[in-house]
Amino acid sequence: MAALDHFRTHEEYLSFMAPRINNLFREKPGQVLFYLDCALKAFVLNLDRASEILQNCFSNDFGRPADFNPADMLRSLVLMVALGITSIPTWVQKLRYSDALAVLCGFEPLFTISGTVCGWKING
Prior knowledge:
The chain has seven helices and two strands.
């Protein structure tokens, strides 16, 4: 079981996401505009109330720290489905090649989820 030191609040997510999307818009406006609908969904998707449920999936006492915040993982899955993607390997590839999508999920563009998600090995 992984350890979780902090659950990112919606306010913290917005503080992370907004300046990065703004910078990306200057560098890659087409990519940001292409995912504008996702950006709006991510902006209003407040996962604070899910913290109790998600925190119970992690240990406070042992295990290595979780690589990704559970709120970001859940947000990522919601955006995946919103884009009509049902394959996690396909989603992982999209996140690797789209800085805007990575940031909207709450990930740093160069540090996104891999083929192993939530302890499940994904082939493909």
